[in-house]
C-alpha cells in the first residue's frame, strides 16, 4: 500500500515536470503538496475491516430452551410450554470505545430469528471497521421506517406479516405455545407483538402505535481483520413475563394483537430479556 502510494506520487511529480510552461516553481510546489495531501487522506480513510458473527440463543430459567415441553412456570404461576420463538431485530449499531456508532448496513441492518429455521440463528456480518467496541444497540422489532407491508416476499419473513387493518408491516415477535389456564384447561399461548391500535369512543381504530423499542447492552469486543469475532445474543424467555410487569397468561395469553395494554407491558419487560456475550475469537 505504502509503496503503491510512493510510486503514484513519484509518477505524478514526473508528469508535472513535463509541463514546460509551468515555470512557476511555487505553483508546482503547491500542486505537488495538494496531490500528496489527497493521496494520503484517501489512504488513511481506508480503515481495515473485519467480520462478526452473531449467534441467537434462547433460555428459560437460564437453561437452553426445550421446545414443546410443558415444563415451565412463569412468575404469575402459569404452567406453559414454548413451541416457537420468532422475532426481528433491526437498526443494529455497534458503539466503539470512543462512543462513535457504526451502523450495520448489510441486510439493511435487519435480521429475522426463528427457531424453526436453523439458518436464522446466526447472522454473519462483514465489513465492520477494525476497532474496539464497548456496546451494541438495536431495535427490537421494526421501526416506522423499516416496517411496511410486503417488504419481504419470501418465507419465513413473509409469513410474519401483520394485518393491514391492524397497522400493517410485520410482527415484531411471536412466542407460541400452550399454557394451563385458570380452569386447568390446556389453552393456546400466542404472545404476538407489533403495531398497536388506539380506539375512539365508538370502538373504531383512531391511531396506530409503533411498539418497537431500543435495546442497548454494554459488551466489550474487538473486530480485527485477522480473526473472527462472535457474539451471543441470548433471550431469556421468563423475563418477558416477570418484571417490571407481572404478565399473567390468563389475562394476556392470546389475542393480544389488538390489545395495546398487553403490548405496553411486553414493551417494558422486553428491554431486559437480552444478554450479549463475547462468545469466542478464532
Ligand atoms: Cu399475530
Describe the structure.
- The chain has 282 residues and is α+β, with helices and mostly antiparallel strands.
- It has 5 helices and 15 strands.
- Strands 3, 4, 5, 6, 8, 9, 10 and 13 form an 8-stranded antiparallel sheet that branches. Strands 1, 2, 7, 14 and 15 form a 5-stranded mixed sheet that branches.
- A hairpin with a 5-residue loop joins strand 9 and strand 10 (186-193).
- Helix 1 runs antiparallel to helix 2.
- The radius of gyration is 26 Å and the shape is elongated.
- The model has no long low-confidence stretch (mean pLDDT 90).
- It binds copper (II) ion.
Please summarize what this structure is.
The chain has 282 residues and is of the alpha+beta class.
Rg estimate, integer Å = 26 Å
Number of domains: 2
Number of helices: 5
Helix content: 10-25%
Give the structural class.
alpha+beta
What is the H/E order? HHEEEEEEEEEEEEEEHHHE
Give the key terms.
282 residues; alpha+beta; eight-stranded antiparallel beta sheet; five-stranded mixed beta sheet; 15 strands; binds copper (II) ion
Blueprint (SSEs and pairs):
Elements: H1 2-17, H2 25-44, E1 49-60, E2 63-64, E3 72-73, E4 79-96, E5 101-103, E6 111-114, E7 122-129, E8 132-140, E9 173-180, E10 186-193, E11 196-199, E12 205-209, E13 213-222, E14 228-236, H3 239-242, H4 249-252, H5 260-270, E15 274-281
Parallel strand pairs: 1-14
Antiparallel strand pairs: 1-2, 1-7, 3-4, 4-5, 4-6, 4-8, 4-9, 8-13, 9-10, 11-12, 14-15
Helix pairs in contact: 1-2
This protein binds copper (II) ion.
Residues 171, 192, 257 line the site of copper (II) ion (CU).
